[in-house]
Amino acid sequence: MNHNTSLDHPPVDLREFDDDFSRAESRTPSPEIGYDEVPDGIYEANVEDVTLGRTTNTGNPMIIWKLRIQGPNCQGRTLSKVRVITPKTIPFVKEDLDRLDMQLDRLSDLNGRLHEMLDRPVRVFKKTNSERRWSDIYFLRARKAPHSEGSAEEAWRTGTTDDLPF
Hints:
Blueprint: H1 18-23, E1 41-54, E2 61-71, E3 78-84, H2 90-99, E4 121-129, E5 134-142, H3 152-158
Antiparallel strand pairs: 1-2, 1-4, 2-3, 4-5
């Protein structure tokens, strides 16, 4: 599509619609199949992307994980987990990293090691706070690859094949 204005056609003057536009209300989009939210629950996922950024309001650093659900429910869908980093959230940051088997001596080392979390299997719990209308994602634990689990008894002890939330 060409956005250049042609000399043959002057720009379209839309001023006559300004009053109507300011009074018009946009309709709420109808929910479409496939675009509804992932329901609350426990999911097996892989870390597809992880970035460090800053919040828009405060400028605090934050970690953003993009998680791809492996199934069987909601397979292929994504979840995003955001952890803002402040002095009060440091214990939660460390817990998140520990559950992804990221052992750091200093948090400042994280930037150079983000790639180590990619493709990491992890069990997550999605919980929606209906009063505040937001969701949070909790890492339950990193999962071992099936071929590394040895026996069914070992898999049971590590919690890598059960669907129990504890």
